[in-house]
């Protein structure tokens, strides 16, 4: 299930708490009206979703949504955070989920757990698993809980901001663990080569050979992972290094020679095509030239 486009989301906290139990606590079988993240600070928890069971230890999150009949349990001696939220809501004002939670007598163990993903522009779809580890989130979770409890002036907007920070951090960690990143690491030798020798006229065959691919497959992987072909990436890298050189005070003539341009006029032409500014205008505007 595709939850939506991350850049267009307006998430809202509906409920946030930190609690501890010294006995086995159980919630469900039930169906909730929103999404829930359950974070184990210490101890152990388990989540039953249809035919699947997910175990969580300290540092792990459990995650599920409104279309997932489930049974959640915390073992003895468990300290945990519970966060109910909506991915998209017009208002940041929390809507407590309790009145809309529905009880189930038994779970249908023949059904697989629903799969979730977020569309991340420029990257692709990021899977959000039912159990995952995301380091360093406990202080932010505590800030969300305190903001929710205290209800200080403007707290709904503050909750939304904190939730966006939490979700953004989690999504970033999930991308680092994803198969896409593993694939991207396989074209890293080509990326490193173009960064280190941007003045060289790299061919697709040479770059593909560095990564152990044939040229056709290499080009497909490159375009899929970066959204552009190797030639466009090399041009962008040359422009990036031209900017850095100009800001260091280097002359366009020396940059043209170092970065593989046939002449300073060609460098100026391509630089203006990519940035809207001539090298001289960029240097005059300085570091602010990249800002809208």
Report on this model:
The protein has two domains: 2-178, Jelly Rolls (Sandwich), CATH 2.60.120.10; 186-290, Orthogonal Bundle (Arc Repressor Mutant, subunit A), CATH 1.10.10.60. A hairpin with a 2-residue loop joins β5 and β6. Helix content is 39%, strand content 26%. It has ten helices and 13 strands. Mean pLDDT is 88; it is low at 287-292. It has a five-stranded antiparallel sheet, with helices on one face. A five-stranded antiparallel sheet has the order 6-5-8-3-10, with no helix packed on it. It has helices at residues 138-150, 155-176, 179-185, 188-196, 204-211, 215-226, 230-247, 252-258, 264-275, 279-285, and strands at 2-5, 12-21, 25-31, 35-42, 44-49, 52-57, 60-64, 70-74, 78-86, 102-103, 116-120, 124-128, 131-133. α7 crosses α10 and α8 crosses α9 (264-275). With 292 residues, the chain is of the alpha+beta class. The longest helix has 22 residues, at 155-176.
